[in-house]
Amino acid sequence: MATAHTTAHGHDHGHHGAHHNEGAHGSVKSYIVGFVLSVILTAIPFGLVMSGALPAGTAIPVCFGLGIVQIIVHLVYFLHMNSSSARSWNMAAFLFTLLIVAILVVGSWWVMLHLNANMMPGAMPME
């Protein structure tokens, strides 16, 4: 006798596709590796800045570069965006997010550069 989740030939189809996408989910090991890398990539810039080991002109680009590496670690280990996942919607959403973040960063930077000249009465324009 077949139930709602079992067909007449005895196969369980109740969780259709639940185990076919196991490659899209990370293992505990991959999450641990991602977490450890994230902690290391946070601790290195923190240590460099707090110890004063590098001058500010060098520390800023190093921290920025390690931040980029950390973004890549998060994308690969936590969001599972790698070359094997052929999900065009995920990539489109990611690219759209990058566009929005770029607009926010560039717009905020532009506002901050022009804030003094636009908001201070009698201030000299920046050159």
From TrEMBL:
NCBIfam families the UniProt entry points to: CyoD
GO molecular-function terms, A-Z: cytochrome bo3 ubiquinol oxidase activity; proton transmembrane transporter activity
Annotated region described as Disordered, given as residue ranges: 1-21
Keyword Nucleotide-binding: no
Topology in the lipid bilayer: Multi-pass membrane protein
PANTHER family: CYTOCHROME BO(3) UBIQUINOL OXIDASE SUBUNIT 4
Keywords: Cell membrane, Electron transport, Membrane, Oxidoreductase, Transmembrane, Transmembrane helix, Transport
Subcellular location: Cell membrane
Family per record: Belongs to the cytochrome c oxidase bacterial subunit 4 family.
Protein name: Cytochrome bo(3) ubiquinol oxidase subunit 4
GO cellular component labels: cytochrome o ubiquinol oxidase complex; plasma membrane
Main location class: membrane
